[in-house]
Design brief:
It contains 12 helices and 7 strands. By secondary structure, the chain is mainly alpha-helical.
Length: about 350
């Protein structure tokens, strides 16, 4: 039954997750330039300043936003002006909507109500993620098709082929997780990772599915269309599906890329690294396997769990940025061969081996 408390809690969790994702995505626009500069022995972004303060170039985030909002909004000569404007909205909206089922903490009690720290507590969360990732393809396809430009159309076709190819691997790698934890709910998967393996080791997904983790991360980067899988952009060849976009419409495509980076980092954290779990941290405090315990306030425990989720997501964002600035771009044939001839057979083999082990243990 909906009450004022539950409705307020739903609004508060939605605002928190949206603000967290948008803030982290905004910071990543600065991290990308600064991290690449450090790796290439350059200073990087440092020109924007307010009242003489530069703060390591952090004001470039504000400068970028001002530039995007104030540049001319060019629309090419096309019969599909509505679809041209709708495409960046679709890319951004469905990337954000996917975060609704990702738990960023356990639960808190307010006025006698248990409030899960998750926007939508659904028992088919994994299916919801698959659905949202599938619909997101329409954004890039419509952008390429409605631009009335051959290079943009080629970029859209490349993007759709790439995203559909690697979604199959993502789906198969998660089948192993579903078989092990016996649920489609992301909250239940994270709770199950709070147990201990052999009485000491946290029962995180990475220890059950190390091959699945590697396959999911590679396919996730490809789904994100970032280097070394940025064939749909291919600046030196076709520019990409957003060739005709400018102003904030281009900014929405760019921002969707960074939001998808946060999304892949969040999913890696949730499925393979315990989500909000902290090793040996129970609802009442730390309970160590060698017999000791450290009781903590319940609000402190929940705060530590939320911080644990945020730290893990930030570490994966850093890793994805590191990969993005380390590896060169694949050719299109190499990308397709990797997806269909390497990752797909490996993910199928991983699923079959996992099923055999689960059946044998039962």
């Amino acid at each position: 039954m909906l009450t004022t408390v539950t409705i307020s809690a739903a609004i508060a969790t939605t605002v928190f997750i949206v603000m967290f994702v948008l803030t982290l995505a905004g910071i990543l626009t600065w991290v990308e330039r600064k991290q690449s500069a450090i790796m290439q022995d350059r200073i990087g972004a440092n020109r924007a300043r307010i009242l003489g303060l530069r703060l390591w170039g952090l004001f470039h985030i504000i400068a970028d936003a001002v530039k995007m909002f104030t540049k001319e909004d060019f629309i090419p000569n096309t019969k599909h002006r509505f679809l041209f404007s709708l495409a960046p909205v679709l890319s951004l909206f469905f990337a954000l909507l996917t975060f609704a089922v990702i738990p960023f903490g356990h639960q808190i009690t307010i006025a006698g109500y248990l409030i899960p720290l998750q926007v939508a507590s659904v028992n088919v969360g994994i299916l919801f993620i698959f659905a949202m990732m599938s619909v997101a393809v329409y954004g890039v396809v419509l952008a390429g098709w409605s631009s009335n430009n051959n290079y943009a159309l080629l970029g859209g076709i490349r993007a759709s082929a790439q995203m559909i190819s690697y979604e199959i691997t993502i789906g198969l790698t998660l089948v192993g997780i579903i078989m092990i934890f016996q649920t489609l709910s992301l909250m239940e998967i994270v709770k199950a990772q709070g147990r201990l393996l052999f009485g000491v080791l946290p029962a995180w997904g990475i220890f059950y599915q190390p091959v699945g983790f590697l396959l999911f991360m590679i396919a996730g980067i490809a789904e994100n269309k970032r280097i070394p899988f940025d064939i749909p952009e291919g600046e030196s060849e076709i520019i990409g599906f957003f060739l005709e976009y400018s102003s904030m419409k281009f900014g929405m495509f760019m921002f969707a890329d960074f939001i998808e980076t946060v999304l892949i980092a969040s999913l890696l954290t949730t499925f393979f690294f315990g989500g909000w779990q902290v090793p040996y941290l129970a609802d009442t405090g730390f309970v160590f396997p060698w017999g000791g315990r450290w009781d903590l306030n319940v609000w402190l425990v929940e705060g530590m769990r939320v911080i644990s989720f945020i730290v893990k997501v930030c570490l994966f964002c850093w890793l994805l940025m590191l990969i993005r600035w380390t590896l060169p771009r694949f050719r299109f044939d190499q990308l397709m061969n990797l997806g269909w001839k390497v990752l797909l057979p490996l993910s199928l083999a991983n699923t079959i081996v996992t099923a055999a082990i689960v059946l044998w243990l039962d």
